[in-house]
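User: We ran a pulldown and think these components assemble together. Before we commit to crystallization trials, I'd like a predicted model of the whole complex to look at. Sequences follow.
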Amino acid sequence: GAVVSQHPSRVICKSGTSVKIECRSLDFQATTMFWYRQFPKQSLMLMATSNEGSKATYEQGVEKDKFLINHASLTLSTLTVTSAHPEDSSFYICSAILQAKNEQFFGPGTRLTVL
Amino acid sequence: AQSVTQLGSHVSVSEGALVLLRCNYSSSVPPYLFWYVQYPNQGLQLLLKYTTGATLVKGINGFEAEFKKSETSFHLTKPSAHMSDAAEYFCAVTLSGNTPLVFGKGTRLSVIA
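Assistant: Here's a predicted model for the assembly, 228 residues in total across the polymer chains.
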């Protein structure tokens, strides 16, 4: 149990296009999900907190108009990178909170490459 | 604010030797502490975690870590390294099970035959 999936696992897009990344909790409901970003050979940094039914909370330095987060259901949060540029190329990882266990579970990550 | 310091960005050990990866944390409240492993181009795999209770925590693949409050440390050890242990290891801290993790910068473990 407590499986989190991400789709797609890899995406390559042209500069200026938008890309949507999905994070799903497959066997539990998650009112809270987190989005992290990992640049090559660096650590993971929290980008934003996604709350079901309300606006996401963004970390300092993360542009909310560029990284659109929608948490429309208890099992799905989406991250849309709008007008992507090469500097947005990164590994994006989500996690979902299983309240009953007071624990978070990570998705497998999505590698975004912007050409 | 919480923070994690991993001493040594790269550690190299011989196969069969002791693995010791160091992690020190800063937290104003009793922390939840984690070790994750990441293989190239893959996601995170939880090795072990400390929340409360016994300070010596055993994880998967023969790894263990000890929470030492007086030293604000949570070092990861394994008695005998295998080639398959070569990967990136991240220490992380958080306040509870439903708050975001703060990660260290990672330590790359190389295992030499």
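Chain A touches chain B through 22 residues (CB under 8 Å). That may be worth checking against your pulldown data before setting up trials.

User: Thanks, that helps.
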